Amino acid sequence: MKTLFIFVSTFKYFLKSYKKNASITKLKQAWALDILKRFNFEIKINNQPSSQSRRILVGNHVSYLDIIVLLAICPEAVFLSKQEVARWPIIGAAAKRIGTIFVSRDNRHARSEARQKIKNLFDNRANEIHLAGFPSGTTCLTESKPWKKGLFEIAQQSDVLVQPFSVDYFPWRECAYVDQDNLFLSLIRLFKTPNKKVVFSWGEAFYVTENIEQEIKSTQDWSRTRFNFTNKKSHNPMQIMAF
């Protein structure tokens, strides 16, 4: 029954978004906080992000939880997501409603279209958005494969800041969604796991220069080092967000 709540809650907020004068941004954050409360997560945030209103947020990708955590902390974020998510029950429709940009990884033309759509969003100076994406392209435990450079190239072309972040969970594997994990079994596992914590860290924002390859590597190294470091620390309770 607890797993069913995730979909019921998402549908509830989805319907609220169609009410007159509804604030999509506020609803996104309220939904995320509601989900994290139900999962009984304790959350800590390290550092402060840039105050710039137009940024591309990039970081490690461990689980679908990353999106929920980001929306709780930065509800202005719009996500770049794989096309498959659009077909998920209820979640897919909600993702479309909040402006998610979907891309088919295996379709070169679709990838080009998505990149152009993102560039157009940033080229329109009236838009104040934070585009969030995961350069790894998929969830993983180690971030051992080099990050893809697409988001960094868009940041360079559109002259917008790259804002690094790192998401870390305790216990690590129980909160991850990788390999052959099943969504429903993962939800059940999360509800059964006690003392769950998430540490979210902001890195130093920067403009991409001609040294793009090195900047991508440095950003990935920071993210990788960050979550590897925090996972070796003691699991003392931490709480900074009021639900």
Describe the structure.
- The chain has 243 residues and is an alpha/beta fold.
- It has one domain: 3-Layer(aba) Sandwich (Glycerol-3-phosphate (1)-acyltransferase), CATH 3.40.1130.10.
- It contains 9 helices and 7 strands.
- It has helices at residues 2-16, 24-39, 65-73, 91-97, 108-123, 150-158, 172-175, 183-192, 212-231; strands spanning 41-46, 55-59, 77-82, 101-103, 130-133, 161-170, 196-202.
- The chain has a 7-stranded mixed beta sheet, with helices on both faces.
- Helix 4 links the parallel strand 3 (77-82) and strand 4.
- Helix 1 packs antiparallel against helix 2 (24-39), helix 1 (2-16) runs parallel beside helix 4 (91-97) and helix 5 packs parallel to helix 6.
- The longest helix has 20 residues, at 212-231.
- It is globular, with a radius of gyration of 17 Å.
User: How many individual domains?
Assistant: 1
CATH topology: Glycerol-3-phosphate (1)-acyltransferase
Strand order of the largest sheet: 1-7-6-2-5-3-4
The helix fraction, in percent, is: 40-55%
Q: List the helices and strands in order.
A: HHEEHEHEHEHEHHEH
Beta content: 15-25%
Overall, the morphology is globular
Text of the CATH class = Alpha Beta
Alpha carbon gyration radius:
17 Å
Structural class designation: alpha/beta
Q: The biggest beta sheet, please?
A: 7 strands, mixed
Oligomeric description of these chains:
single chain
Question: Secondary-structure blueprint of this entry?
Answer:
Layout: H1 2-16, H2 24-39, E1 41-46, E2 55-59, H3 65-73, E3 77-82, H4 91-97, E4 101-103, H5 108-123, E5 130-133, H6 150-158, E6 161-170, H7 172-175, H8 183-192, E7 196-202, H9 212-231
Parallel strand pairs: 1-7, 2-5, 2-6, 3-4, 3-5
Antiparallel strand pairs: 6-7
Helix pairs in contact: 1-2, 1-4, 2-3, 5-6
